[in-house]
Amino acid sequence: xxxxxIVDLVQKHQAQMGASAPAPxxxxxxxxxxxxAVQHKSAMMAGNMPEDxxxxxxxxxxxxxxxxxxxxxxxxxxxxxxxxxNGERVAEIRPFTFDDERxxxxxxxxxxxxxxxxxxxxxxxxxxxxxDLTPYDRLYLLFRIRGISYGDDYPIQHxxxxxxxxxxxxxxxxxxxxxxxxxxxxxxxxxxxxxxxVIKLPRAQDEHLYSSAERLxxxxxxxxxxxxxITDKTILEAFIQKTTVRDxxxxxxKIFTPDYGMExxxxxTCNECGxxxxxxxxxxxxxxxxx
Length: 291
Hints:
Elements: H1 6-16, H2 26-48, H3 52-62, E1 73-76, E2 90-93, H4 98-106, H5 113-124, E3 125-126, H6 135-150, E4 153-159, E5 166-172, E6 178-179, H7 183-186, E7 187-189, E8 196-199, H8 213-218, E9 224-227, H9 233-242, H10 245-256, E10 261-262, E11 265-269, E12 276-280
Antiparallel strand pairs: 1-2, 2-3, 4-5, 6-10, 7-8, 8-9, 11-12
Helix pairs in contact: 1-2
């Protein structure tokens, strides 16, 4: 192997080419060699790297069957727009993306999972303000997004109430019935006072008002628009404190357990003992996983 330096090689090359210019200084020679090497390397890299258009076309081909599955779809809200200022009856939803999946995985380590769900809904819902959604509309949208993201089958385990045997069940989300809200639910006669009541239903931001049974009773009047045409909150609070428990129970049921929204339970018969079990439908550890 030759012990000649880069400078020596450059000088020898120029001598062989019969260069008439004075021999370069060591620094000048290095600059020329470095420049040539950089240009050569750049040319090689340019030849190996695909053009942006080619890269984009290749990605489009890979995702050809995915784009339709990631499209926004329109769903009708169970509340029928009766509870929102702008009367939104429908919303648009889309499936979870890779970034949404990362948010879901991080939810296990965060102290406020509700904030994670709120963030996911903001990413995957448009056409209605997420913070204004009622709990029943929120749950409905979550199940619909889950269905188009991971599949219609939702695995659920349940222990028989009679023999305690664990059954592995599969719920098909698309089979759940949805009952729309009607004007009649918002306006009704109280059984004992025989006064017409008009109510509002809770939103997500109202949860602190009914976080316990005590707070629910303290703030029940906050969810009443009027009784007998009277809208003054001071009078409504006094009315609730003085009317019968049957009137109060009617208000409480209409406000906090309304008969609209997605089905919240189903039944199955235990294979072990034949007992008919009721299963409440909620979010479990398999909710955000593929069917």
